[in-house]
Amino acid sequence: MRNPVPRFxxxxxxxxxxxxxxxxxxxxxxxxxxWFIRDACGIVCAIxxxxxxxxxxxxxxxxxxxxxxxLAYSLxxxxxxxxxxxxxxxxxxxxxxTDPGAVPKGNxxxxxxxxxxxxxxxxxxxxxxxxxIKPDRAHHCSVCKRCIRKMDHHCPWVNNCVGENNQKYFVLxxxxxxxxxxxALVMVVFHFLYCxxxxxxxxxxxxxxATVIILILLCFEALLFLIFTSVxxxxxxxxxxxxxxxxxxxxxxxxxxxxxxxxxxxxxxFGHPFSIAWFSPFSTPEHGKSxxxxxxx
Length: 297
Description:
With about 300 residues, this protein is mostly helical. The protein is built from seven helices and seven strands, in the order βαααββββββαααα. β6 and β7 form a beta hairpin. α1 (about 40-65) packs antiparallel against α2 (about 70-95), α1 packs across α5 (about 210-240) and α5 (about 210-240) crosses α7 (about 260-270). It starts with 9 loop residues before the first strand and ends in a 27-residue tail after the last helix.
């Protein structure tokens, strides 16, 4: 029995079904390691993200750590917080500037389909928006204006889609933001307790009103992002373990791919074997090589 074809996909069963007037021959795109989406909303959100991290850096260093009389406390917490913040920003940059798995534009031409030498009954999926042959589990992003392999969602905070090639960096970004948010909250609580016991004029180089306002803003920011990123991190880990993207869950797509163990799914995203490189945004995972175009009989 032939598997039913999802309604939301444009299906071309024969090469003759393609109209050359609509799908021009694919242009040879320049091989560029840098990927950047020119979307105003996404760029603003990315700038806000970096600004908030730098604000947290300012509040932690100049309000809590530098004025502290305990040198060991300042060194340990300063090193930890700055390391996590650096990894968070590095993960954000990699998630934003890494090709998430874009399918080449304009390859759904009559000539190209004929060159595939399809057997009778084989089906290829064509995206009518970017005129590309859609690999299995690829979806079109209206912001990126491309079909993305294993697209989970488009995130304005990283100004990019979360897909096959950059999901690791997005997961690391949410994890490190969650950790620095928790760390900042803990330090704010200890600093408030210390200032209540001591003189407010001695626990900060700023005036007491300014110190209180900055700490309240930091507390609000840290709590908000702790909740948001912890939920996103948990959602992403669940999506990876079940090998089902957010779009596939939302659209309740029929599962046509082989089922693997949770550990195999984790290794497919973070690279294998397991090592410290899983937690590094500077390490590129080795994704398994698969046929970029899969057909349904």
